[in-house]
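Posted in: Protein Modeling Q&A

I'm a second-year student putting together a small comparison for a lab meeting, and my supervisor asked me to include a predicted structure for TRANSDUCIN/WD40 repeat-like superfamily protein. I've never done this before, so apologies if this is the wrong subforum. The sequence is pasted below exactly as I got it from our records. If anyone can share the structure token output, I'd also love a short note on what stands out.
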Amino acid sequence: MNSSGLASDSTRQFAINKQGISALEFDNKGIYLLSVTKSGCLTVHDFESLYCQANDSFSYFGEDERKSEDESKHVLHNSLGRQLDAVRWNLANQDEVACTSMKTNEVHIFDIGYISSEPVEVLKTRRAVTVHGSDIHKGLTDIAFTSDSRLIASDTNGGVNVWDRRMSALPCLELTSNSRSTLNSIKLSMENQMVFGAGRHGIVYMWDLRGGRAASAFQFHKQICHPPVSSWKLSSMLERIGSLKAQSDIVSKEVHSIDFDPSCPYQLAFHLDDGWSGILDIYNFQVTHVHCPPPAWLNGSSTDLLSLRKPSWLATHSIYVVGSSTDNGIHLLDFYPDPSSPCHVDYSPIEDVERPSRMNSRNKQNRFLPLSEGVTACAAHPLNGTIIAGTQLSSLLVVSQRKYSVED
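Accepted answer (user: helix_wrangler)
Welcome! Here is the predicted structure, written out as tokens:
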């Protein structure tokens, strides 16, 4: 059987001259790569051109040297002059991209077929006020497209806004939480029915777009509001893991990102402020995997409290790629959905050795790949597994893989 394993075949580095990569995403076919920066640069890169330029430059540039990307190869390059924090492709129309910012209550949608710095559509949240009539700031933190015309965005006020673009530029539905703190990340289930969100208080929320418990829904200023169907505090779930509780002082931490495993749809990965990562099994509602890197103080490093880290899944093998919270590099975590994974809470090295050789043929290990800069966002190519790492210094690091075979 053939299996692909991650290794550092080559790493190329490009500076795109803007401060801090906020988010990266490939389109469905891996033809284009989206990036946004903290200083407001929205770019659509041609992946083949980026990859070829990386290979061409390898013989001329050392691993730690920065090479400016050829901007003439960009499909779209807009400097919008404001902070950008999230970017997504429209699942139903891959000519459309949407971006937003914690500094504004607007989602800007661009058509990459038009060479224009102006969006083709702008969606806004509804005005929110305190009991005293003061405006409540509602910045937007993350975006998701459904397979139809709906767009979803989480906000800094503990809510998720849902727009039906056929109806209005204002939300038709709000998913509420029991908190007014920031939701950093949202994900749709595979069937586009359930929305999962998590953020500052370390809680994962689940909403049903179909309405959930009808009696609990309410209407406010012509907008239907739905509370969560369920929620889970991750620190409480981690405390149930006896071996982990015995070794660690578990406290509630901010969730930077959540994401579904493309090869196992019931595995919801989470990444925490302290660098921990894990899996929430949404069928059994328990944490099944966890990775706990050494704390920052142990090696004298410090975490960057201003940057959210946004990991990515490889398309196969349940490998989770996440930027290190303390070092320059990425962790490649084996989150395979059974106890043979070294991150599984029931993993036993002795039992793993005794498993049949066929079960052990999968390459099972976590790896750390050192890079030249601190990583804030990762994206994995959907077909060949090439990893693009965006950094705090606004470089794009192109990390390729080796292929090897494992005999049955």
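A couple of things worth pointing out for your meeting: Confidence is low (pLDDT under 50) at residues 1-9, 59-65, 403-408. Residues 47-57 form the longest helix (11 residues).
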